[in-house]
Design goal:
By secondary structure, the protein is mainly α. Helix content is about 60%, strand content about 5%. It has a two-stranded antiparallel ribbon.
Length: about 200
């Protein structure tokens, strides 16, 4: 089980993306893997790591599967609202818990992500921690809740959900590892996306 997200001392081995990907691989043992299978693998007493997991998967080829961006958006928004409310134990409705994806596709996506995730793990340290605590943590979580709202209507454009998923992943990873540099990078991505959208407006 993933440690409580509010634990003060970071366990370097368990607070890594590689650890999360290992759990995804383990959950995908049958022909299909459901959201409930993944939740059972990691436990339901922590929220930020699961937000991170869903966001990371959207950066992978899984984002191209019809319905995945919309379901992922719903999961992230529900989880983030719970984190903002101070809830410690994760809850998801049954219709989301029952959603499945082929285990083979999940394993391929995990394999695709291992290289980039190992790079991030090697370059993660406790820095700019004020961006991961108190009111600043709430601001980052609020951003994680707002960003996915645009994914369902733009699902036909996989790059949109991938970029959004990458932004949420940066924010969640920074909170998870207490590394404010990644939170800052998430804000930079938000700024770039906002400027790009504004430049496209008439």
């Amino acid at each position: 089980m993933i440690p409580d997200e509010n634990t003060t001392d970071r366990d370097d081995e368990s607070h890594t993306l590689t650890h999360l990907l290992d759990g995804m691989d383990k959950a995908a043992e049958g022909e299909e893997v459901s959201v409930a299978d993944v939740l059972n693998e990691f436990g339901d007493r922590t929220i930020t790591p699961f937000i991170l997991l869903v966001a990371v998967m959207l950066v992978s080829p899984l984002s191209g599967i019809p319905g995945v961006p919309t379901v992922s958006a719903a999961i992230i928004v529900i989880m983030t609202v719970q984190a903002l409310s101070g809830r410690r134990r994760l809850w998801l409705p049954q219709f989301l818990l029952r959603r499945t994806v082929a285990s083979e596709k999940m394993r391929k996506a995990v394999g695709w992500m291992r290289g980039p995730c190992r790079f991030l793990d090697r370059h993660s340290h406790k820095r700019l921690m004020f961006l991961t605590r108190g009111p600043m943590r709430l601001i980052a979580l609020a951003a994680c809740a707002i960003i996915p709202l645009g994914w369902p209507p733009l699902e036909v454009l996989p790059m949109v959900s991938s970029i959004g998923g990458g932004t949420v992943a940066l924010l969640a990873y920074g909170l998870y590892t207490r590394d404010g540099v990644y939170v800052l990078l998430g804000y930079v991505m938000i700024g770039i996306s906002a400027l790009t959208i504004l430049s496209l407006l008439p």
